[in-house]
Amino acid sequence: MSNLFDGYEDHFNAEVRLIILRALSEEADGRLNSSMLMKVLEAFAINRTREFVHTQLRWLEKQAQAVVLTEAGSVLVAELTEQGENHLKRKAVIEGINQPSRRKA
Fold first, then answer.
1. Which pTM was predicted?
2. Could you give the number of structural domains in the chain?
3. Is residue 97 part of a domain?
4. Which domain holds residue 13?
5. Residue 69 pLDDT more than 70?
6. Rounded Cα distance, 27 and 88, in Å
7. What is each CA distance from 100 to 48, 49, 72, 85, 88, in whole angstroms?
8. In a domain, 100, yes or no
9. For 77-82, what is the mean pLDDT?
10. CATH, residue 55
């Protein structure tokens, strides 16, 4: 019998990663720090620790090559890469990140 929550963590993380990429794409320079990203996630009722956000950012850098990270004191600064942008534009698919929805006409 399947547990109701099987796969929930993977789905949750994939949604968080999409929200992060979208937030970066809305910035003129494609960059935000982890403290600002925590505020963005809170707007979506995702209240997690800085460590959680850093884990997601590191995944986006190492596994997906969707961001480049720079350490600045106790925060990480994430910059959207072409790969991350291509995922948002639906030109590429990155496993582990939810697909963006299609724009409505």
1. 0.93
2. 1
3. no
4. 8-88
5. yes
6. 14
7. 22, 25, 29, 11, 6
8. no
9. 98
10. 1.10.10.10
